[in-house]
Structures are given as C-alpha cells and as structure tokens.
Amino acid sequence: MDWVNETILRWRETPAADLKSEDFEQFKNLGCSCLAQDESEKLLEFLHDENNQVIVRTMGSVLLSPLLNMAVKDKHHHPCQAAITHLTMTCSPDDVVNRCIQVVEDVDPGLISDTIITVAPHLQAGLLRLEGNQASFVGAALSALHKQLTRLPVPYCKQQEDDDEYGLCRCCSTLAAFIQPFAEKIHDYVEHQEREELKSELLKFCMRSLREPLLEAELARDRNSSLRLFATQLMITIQATGESTSDIVFSRNRSNLMPVSQSQESRASLSYLLFVQLITYDSFPSIYSPMFVLQSNMENISLLLSSKKESHLTKGLALFEKGLEKIEDNSLPVSLLELQSFYRVIQNLRFILTDCPIQHLRQSGLQILQMFINKLDCGAKQKIFRCLLINSNHSGLEGFIVKNIKKQMELSMNGDDTNDWPEGRNFLPLLQLVFALPDGAQTNLLYNLDRYTSKSLIMECLNLLRFLLIRNKITKEEEVWREFCQIKDSFLQTLRVSISMSRSYYSYELKTLTEDMKLKAREMRACAGSTKSLKRMILKHKQESNLTPAEQHQVLQSALVTLDLMESLIFRIDEITEGNLTMAN
Questions:
Q1: Which residues of 344-357 are buried (b: 16+ CB within 10 A; e: fewer)?
Q2: 158 half-sphere exposure, CB direction, 13 A CA radius
Q3: What pTM does this model have?
C-alpha cells in the first residue's frame, strides 16, 4: 500500500489545476476498490480527513456514481450515505448535479424507483448550492427524473397504491419534496431572465406530470394518498409560477411547453383536479358563471371521453357531472348543441352507453346523460332526442330517449311552466322517428333489450302511444291529428306483422328445443351404462351452446311472454282509439 500513500501524498502537494485526467481515473479506481472490498468506512475516513479536502473538492465527484449505485442497492449502508452527503456538500455543485443526473439517466430498469428516491435529495442539495445558471440545471434534472417516472406502472386501485409494488407512489412523494424549495424561492431571484426560466421549467414539469402519471391515477378525496399529495404540490407550484389555472383550463395560455396533444391532456387533468378534486379551487376566480365554466370545459371533457382508458373515461364523466351540477334545469339553450365541443361530448357519451364493456361506466354515463337532458331547454331537448334517435342504432338507448319524451309530454300536459314542449305539427317529426321499425316487419323485436330497464324499445314506444291517446292533447288541429293517426296506424300495422312473424319463429324454436331435450334425455338413459359415451355427449352439448337447454328454454319462454305483453298493449291502444272515435261522434 506504499504506492497508495505516495499517490495520495502527491495529490496533496499538487495544485488542483495541475491534476490530470489520469489522476481522476486513478482516484475513482481507488474509491471503487474500497467499496468492492467492503472498506467504505476507510473511504469515509479519507473523505473527512482535513488534509484531503482539496483532493475531495477537486476529484471527489467522480465517486458519486459508484457511491449512489451502491446506496440504491443498500439503502441502510450508512457509511456510503454519509460519503455521498459529504461529497454533495463539498464538491463543485455543477459536477454534483451532472453526476446525479447521469445516474438517473443510466438507471437499471428494475431499480427506477429506488434510484429516484436515493438520488433526488442529493440532486436537490447540489441544485440549491448553485449560484448561477440554476434554472437550466433544474430543468435538466426535472426532465431526467420525469422520464424515468413515466416508466413506472400506475396503480389503478387503493390496494395497488397501498402495496406500491413498483414504487411510483414513493417516487411521487420524493418529487413533491424535490420541487417544493424551488417553487418557494421563485420570487427571490433578482435577475428577471433567470426567474422566468425557472418558472418555465417548473411549469413544464408540472404539466407533464399532470399528464403522466396523474391522468392515469385514481385520486380519491377521502384519503391523502401519495399521488394526491403530489397532485396538490403540482397545483401549488403552478400557482407559484404566476400562471393562472383558469387561463390554462380555458386554453388562454401559451401552449409551447409540449406537443399539442400532450398539452391538451395536461389541461384536462388540471381541470379534473381543480373542479372535481377541488385542489386549489379556493383560489379559482368566482367571476365565471357555471355555464361559462361548463362550455369552456367541454373540450377537456371531450378529450377524456374519447379515450379508451378506464381512468380517462372515469375522470371525463366526473368532470362533466361536476360541470352540470351548478347549472339550472331547463336553462341550456339549443345554440350550445351546435358547438363542436358539445356535439363531440354527446357522441362520445353515446359511444360509452352503447359500446363500452365496463358496466359501471355505462351506468354513470346514463345518469349523466339524464342530468344533461334535464339541464337543456325544450328546444335543446328536442334536438338531442332527434340526434340520438337517428344516430344511436341501439334499442336500449332509444328506449331511454322515448321514455324521456313521454316524461316531457307529461310535464307539459300537467301545466309545468318551465316546460314549453311543442304540440301539433312541430311534434310530428319526432313522433315519426319514434314510431318506426328500422327494418319494417322484419325487425327483430327482442334484439338488444334495454339493459337499463329490462324493457324493449317497442314496449316504451307502445307506452308512449297509449299515453298520447289517453291524454288526447297532442293537438287541437284536425289535420295534424289525422297525420298522427296515420303514423300510429302504420306503426301498429307493421308491428302486428312483425309480432306474428316473431311468434312463429320463437314458437318453432321452443318446440324444436323441447323435442331435442326429450331426445337427449332418451339418449343419455340409453348411454347410462357407458361412461365414455356419456362424457362425449356432455362435451358435445357444451360445444354447441353457451347456455344449458333449461336456460335456452327460459329465454324462449320469456320472449313469447314479451310478445304477449306487446299484443296486450296494442289491444288496449285499439280500445282507447275506438273510445276516442265514439266520443268524437
């Protein structure tokens, strides 16, 4: 070891400016050798030795990478942690920051969270020691940290968040603490350019983090999770930069921080945190009317509802619902539906109701659609009813609309002053859409029963028709009433033919199934002595249908009962019609 002592003595006597790259490499090798031989105590003693402080200040930063990598793998290695802390506070802050960023950028994919948690405090310490050009270094550090953060899976439920298997939640807590001092000292900068650059870098990081990971994350208001605390710190930091959250939500700020699509997702995430989670909502200007907020938010809602991700859809529905809550019933004018943003939201909501495989989203979507309909004035209600009847191509949703038309008619006929529902000729085009079978007599009357009410579209149409005939107030104009009766008669005539065809089909299917069940029962009794034959028969039956014969039998019986109900309603409608004619004569 004499040569080691001689080398150290030479370094002590050599001016810092005269040390060569070979000296730096040799110093690093000696430090790594100590770590490899588990002599970190000896290395720490060397670093703290007063006689070696010039060497440490000049060349010590080369040891940061190996020390940090060791600390990542062994968080409780106290000599290693102490050595890093000493180097962070002793070496050139520029070198410290660059070395820390390099460790973050070169991270092992399996050690991302451990690396961020270990390196971030030392990186922060180095940044805070910088006397000049701090903003650009902060930007580089935040960019490197965020890039690695986005590689971690986002927990999608409370249990996963509590388990934090991949460490995303711990990383978010670390980064919340990391940016806090920079947000707090923004206004301490005397130089305008440096202050504005730091604001820009912090805002860029916040907007990127709002998109990834927070747009994917569940953020329940009833618990202070790490992700929610991170979201809160981001919103506080945005305010600290001097940016108005209202300007960001309403797209009035400059959007050069990231690509447009990403910027839109960040705004949508910020809007969700602000209006649904109410994070920093106390500072949101109260001058905006609920209708203006809703209208301005429709782009954000549309973006979220157009996604295929459950987390985005959940947030979009919640944001839409929150925007509707403060709107008065019957107050949204028809002109709003002509805006592209409203049109896209309605189409996206229709897609969720008809094609989304996730049940709780369909249920929430239906409740919000009803809430939205309630907020529309009469003209807007008619327009959305027509739009959905024409474009939905889904009997369940169409049945829901027909039920809403009946509700509006009831309110109007009961003298509701807030409901100026049209009568007469203005109402006929809507009825023409309602009382029409899409495929004429060939229409499958029992296809796609309404998943929300367990009733078919046809049943809802017949209920509406019966209601209109009982109340007999659709119009006082004889000509309009004749047109309505023509629509009714054409609908019922086609429906009778369709019911007859459907009954023949389902009766035949039921008879065939019954005979098949009897035949299979005889075959199974005949094969009772042969286990292999019996197993082959059972396997064959399972491959033929997903339903058991008993279940198929129940479905067919239910179909025939539904057809009976339709016929009974038609019979009742005929009775009402005859009664009206008798009274008229």
A1: bbbebbbebbbebe
A2: 5
A3: 0.86
